[in-house]
Amino acid sequence: MAKKLSVIGIGPGSREMMTVGALDALEKSTVIVGYHVYVDLVKDSYPNKRLITTPMKKESERCVLALQEAASGEDVAFVCSGDAGVYGMAGLVYEVAKDYPGVEIEIIPGITAACSGAAVLGAPLIHDFVLISLSDLLTPWEKIEKRLKCAAEGDFGIVLYNPSSHKRADYLQKACDILLKTLPEDRLCGTVRSIGREGETAKLYTLKELRDTAVDMFTTVFIGNSETREINGKMVTPRGYAAERETQ
User: Residue 166: its pLDDT value, please?
Assistant: First the structure.
């Protein structure tokens, strides 16, 4: 009899930054499935679970393996970093699950890098913001460029995922060049690397400085809106609460 497939966002990976629901689903599972890097983050806490991992670029295969295990009667925890519904596997699981109608699917949300990274920097996302991935593996660069341009013109706070890799070493620079056509050089920005993990680092920049900064796939980039400012070393975007209080 088929059992449940829980697609779990594990946040940055540390237990203290996982939800109670995520920890509960992991505890109840008999099998943990996921990209090997993410399974490595949780496996030490569950030594008696059976682990199934796949390398990068095996996303569809990973989903099939998880669904097959659930269809055979296992309670499966399918782990994703951050939130499973934000650049995660939740959507693909539902697509593939059309061939496994007896499997119950539950999506358990987690803390995405935009939120956990923002907490490290201060409060940069208090007003409207957008998430944009700079990876062009699944999205044409022309579409990414258009999204960057529109976000800048709309004065959104911007969070950039997947800002660089060995094959895309200059993509953050390219993105900053697009943004600098609309935004001033002194726009406040920040980066956080290895959020919630050993070696976590954070730093503030101007947009001009950010353009020439080396980052990697473990880095999340934050670009403020026109109101964002530095307060006691933290990146803060006001939403107008202070001004409202002053008029009362």
Answer: 81
